[in-house]
Amino acid sequence: MDERRELAQELDEIQHLIKELEIRYEQYFAGIERREPFNERKNIARRIRHFTNRHIVWTDLKFRYQGIASRFMSYGQYWDRILRLIDEGKYHRHTVKISPPSAQKTKSKSIDPKIEAAKLQQELSKARENCGLSGSAPSAEKVASFLASQREKIRDRYGDKPVEFSIDTSGDKPRIKVSLRK
Q1: Taking Cα atoms as reference points, which of 121, 123, 96, 103 lies closest to residue 180?
Q2: pLDDT reported for residue 1
Q3: What is the pLDDT of residue 15?
Q4: How many Å from the N-terminal Cα to the C-terminal Cα in the chain?
Q5: Are 168 and 177 in contact, with CB atoms under 8 Å apart?
Q6: In sequence order, what are the residues at sequence separation of 6 or more whose Cβ sits closer than 8 angstroms to the Cβ of residue 58?
Q7: Distance of alpha carbon 63 from its chain centroid, rounded?
Q8: Most buried of 47, 52, 58, 113, CB within 10 angstroms?
């Protein structure tokens, strides 16, 4: 029973080390870590190879070892692919995800909703004239109230990402279109 417990503890430790290694690689890919955690990966691979020649009697531990080994191999292939892309210059780090929230807020330009609604109302009236529609376009206040009522839906769809409004004239009548700001 002691051997079974030791084996289970060793598998627990390897599983924990793999999770830490996964985090270290993600930090390396994000640019937080300066160096690839190559030595840690090599040590875990050595510990897993130690089990390949070992005869495990208990089926549950054998199954668990096989799952850990296959997960480590999958991670290794994923990490190698990302490293190859970095070497080729085709991998773009997602640094926006790791920048502090205050920096993201200062980057986006805040536009006054009333000014934006007035601008949209003017574009909407021009688009209505170009489409040959009779009647007047909605007022700037109506456009502002429409955008205010749609903010929740916009936030659900795009999150806190900056969005921009434009007039879409592709259909039979002009519509207000929401898209992500570039």
Answers
A1: 96
A2: 65
A3: 95
A4: 62
A5: yes
A6: 4, 7
A7: 32
A8: 47
- 92 contacts 131 by C-beta, under 8 angstroms: no
The secondary structure element, H or E, covering residue 167 is strand 163-168
Q: Kindly provide the b/e burial profile for residues 110-122, where b requires at least 16 CB atoms within 10 angstroms of the residue's own CB.
A: eeeeeebbbebbe
DSSP SS3 for 19: helix
Please give the helix or strand (H or E) that residue 147 lies within, else none. Answer: helix 140-158
Q: What's the pLDDT at 118? A: 80
- Alpha-carbon gap, residue 181 to 126, rounded angstroms: 23
Burial (CB count within 10 angstroms: exposed 0-12, middle 13-18, buried 19+), residue 178? middle
Question: How many Cα atoms are found within 13 Å in the side-chain-facing hemisphere of 115?
Answer: 3
Spell out, as residue ranges, where the chain has pLDDT lower than 50: 103-108
Sorted by sequence, the CB contacts under 8 Å of residue 140 that are 6+ apart come out as 114, 117, 118, 121
Supply the pTM of this predicted model: 0.51
CB 154 within 8 A of CB 167: no
Q: Which of 33, 29, 23 is nearest to 85 (CA)?
A: 29
